């Protein structure tokens, strides 16, 4: 008869740190890894009275109290299916398998069905906060049956980060794939946020001529105001870091990698018909940073001469631009939650999602408090941009964003996310966006019909050929 409170499979960065975090909260933890070496190294380097290593999967499962709580913290994709296939025969009805990795939410929906056939609960859990979060308190987004959540919540709410009001950053957000969907979009917003920060950095460095040390001070200063966030804070740290007297950032290759959650967000948004242009711009920026032809393009297409604008008001304009565009990025991400919630019938609680993002996760930021308040005031707000606080901030920052993006474009500095934020505003708020011509063309070549401004219904026009080809 097993006695350990929970089992964790996967002794990588996240699994090992979560095991320690859970063990620190007086829960007993069995750990297992598909290769014994990772487990051996972990228990050698981090001996803990509440952690017991297992090198045999059957013994690991047998060590757990019932209903068993078995958490996977392993590489997403095929390994998760393979591990479930190995675990399921060893489980009993009522046991709970928790996937804490960045799994694709549709895989989670499928796995939920597979486990349900055996009476086993499957919980798709989004976890954010990286290594430090896992060790000291992550944000936890739980998808699955509420019966299962009730059995595991005491553990995860204990280890999760706590917001300023002491509420745990852990919530049951909906059934099956909802937790992984919420995490996927969190990561998409993370991509957009980091891209905007990178654009602000580039503008200040290339046009303002600031050194990395000076920029570290600027970002540090920004982090004391409305931009206060984990990402701005660590940007200051990265900028300030030196090795042998030189900037570490200057030594990092200018090529951004990705594991795919941002890309999934873009694909799902396109499928849902929601514009997440800043997330897609961020994905494209990472893709383009990797292309082999960059060196050749630098020679073939020299960029325009860059003037210098080293002035305090330029720094402030960039700060305002970053904040304004960031609001658009978050509004787009939350619009995707709203649409997906309808599509999948999840009844997502946007206020609670914003609340659990207030601490522990990578996108934790001061203004998540305001997003949570906005949804508390109007749970069905059509778009966050219509909340008076954000409307005011957009109006306040739009001019700076326009000036800064235009400066970047004129100087040949790529600002796809900042420009994307403006384009989004212009398309959203513009009286005519050219869609009338698109409809005319579609009707011309394909008889796709169009709607009229003066009458209800769908119309086809018999177009005349005025110009001979
Ligand atoms: N790092 C981060 O900041 C965050 C990561 N995540 C997600 O958490 C999950 C784990 O990430 P992380 O800990 O960083 O990754 P690591 O690469 O540090 O660890 C991966 C773990 O998966 C195990 N593993 C690899 N292949 C298999 C397999 N075929 N079968 C079983 N186990 C396997 C590895 O074992 P071994 O090394 O012995 O092969 C290792 O224990 C991923 O889904 C990741 O996307 C979520 C939030 C934040
Ligand atoms: O989930 C995370 C944080 O929330 C991970 O850090 C994520 O893997 C980062 O994504 P990518 O590697 O694609 O930049």
From TrEMBL:
The keyword Manganese does not apply. GO terms for molecular function: NADP binding; phosphogluconate dehydrogenase (decarboxylating) activity. InterPro entries: 6-PGluconate_DH-like_C_sf, 6PGD_dom2, 6PGDH_C, 6PGDH_Gnd/GntZ, 6PGDH_NADP-bd, 6PGdom_BS, NAD(P)-bd_dom_sf, Pgluconate_DH. Its EC number is 1.1.1.44. The keyword Methyltransferase does not apply. It comes from the Bacteria. Keywords: Gluconate utilization, NADP, Oxidoreductase, Pentose shunt. NADP(+) binds at residues 10-15, 33-35, 74-76, 102. It holds the Pfam family 6PGD. Residues 179-464 form the 6-phosphogluconate dehydrogenase C-terminal domain. One of its GO terms (biological process) is D-gluconate metabolic process. The active site is at 183 (proton acceptor), 190 (proton donor). It catalyses: 6-phospho-D-gluconate + NADP(+) = D-ribulose 5-phosphate + CO2 + NADPH. Substrate binds at residues 102, 128-130, 186-187, 191, 259, 286, 442, 448. Pathway: Carbohydrate degradation; pentose phosphate pathway; D-ribulose 5-phosphate from D-glucose 6-phosphate (oxidative stage): step 3/3. Catalyzes the oxidative decarboxylation of 6-phosphogluconate to ribulose 5-phosphate and CO(2), with concomitant reduction of NADP to NADPH. Homodimer. Belongs to the 6-phosphogluconate dehydrogenase family. This is 6-phosphogluconate dehydrogenase, decarboxylating. It comes from Megasphaera lornae.
């Amino acid at each position: 008869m097993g006695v350990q409170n929970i089992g964790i499979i996967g002794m990588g960065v996240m699994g090992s740190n979560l095991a320690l975090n859970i063990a620190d909260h007086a829960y007993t933890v069995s750990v297992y890894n598909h290769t014994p070496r990772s487990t051996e190294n972990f228990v050698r380097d981090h001996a803990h009275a509440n952690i017991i290593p297992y090198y045999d999967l059957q013994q690991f499962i047998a060590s757990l109290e019932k209903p068993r709580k078995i958490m996977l913290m392993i590489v997403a994709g095929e390994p998760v299916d393979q591990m479930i296939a190995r675990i399921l025969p060893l489980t009993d009805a009522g046991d709970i398998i928790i996937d804490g990795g960045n799994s694709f939410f549709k895989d989670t929906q499928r796995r939920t069905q597979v486990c349900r056939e055996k009476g086993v609960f499957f919980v798709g859990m989004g976890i954010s906060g990286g290594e430090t979060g896992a060790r000291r308190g992550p944000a936890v987004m739980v998808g699955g049956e509420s019966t299962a959540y009730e059995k595991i919540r005491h553990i995860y709410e204990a280890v999760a980060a706590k917001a300023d009001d002491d509420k745990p950053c852990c919530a049951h957000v909906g059934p099956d794939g909802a937790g992984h969907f919420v995490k996927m979009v969190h990561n998409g917003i993370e991509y957009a946020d980091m891209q905007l920060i990178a654009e602000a950095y580039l503008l200040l460095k290339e046009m303002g001529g600031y050194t990395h040390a000076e920029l570290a001070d600027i970002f540090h200063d920004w982090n004391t105001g409305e931009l206060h966030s984990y990402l701005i804070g660590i940007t200051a740290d990265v900028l300030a870091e030196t090795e042998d007297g030189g900037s570490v950032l200057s030594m990092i290759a200018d090529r951004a990698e990705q594991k795919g959650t941002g890309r999934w967000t873009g694909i799902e948004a396109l499928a849902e018909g929601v514009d997440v242009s800043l997330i897609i711009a961020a994905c494209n920026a990472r893709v383009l940073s990797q292309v082999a032809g960059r060196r050749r393009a630098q020679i073939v297409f020299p960029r325009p001469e860059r003037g210098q604008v080293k002035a305090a008001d330029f720094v402030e304009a960039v700060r305002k631009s970053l904040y304004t565009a960031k609001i658009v990025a978050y509004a787009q991400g939350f619009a995707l939650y709203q649409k997906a919630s309808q599509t999948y019938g999840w009844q997502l609680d946007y206020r609670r999602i914003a609340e659990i993002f207030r601490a522990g996760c990578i996108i934790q930021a001061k203004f998540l408090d305001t997003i949570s308040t906005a949804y508390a005031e109007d749970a069905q707000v059509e778009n966050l941009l219509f909340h008076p606080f954000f409307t005011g901030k957009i109006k306040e920052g739009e001019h700076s964003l326009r000036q800064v993006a235009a400066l970047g474009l004129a100087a040949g500095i790529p600002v796809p996310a900042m420009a994307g934020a403006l384009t989004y505003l212009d398309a959203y708020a513009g009286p005519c966006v050219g869609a009338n011509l698109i409809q005319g063309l579609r009707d011309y070549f394909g008889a796709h019909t169009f709607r009229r401004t003066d009458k209800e219904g769908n119309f086809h026009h018999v177009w005349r050929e005025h110009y001979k080809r």
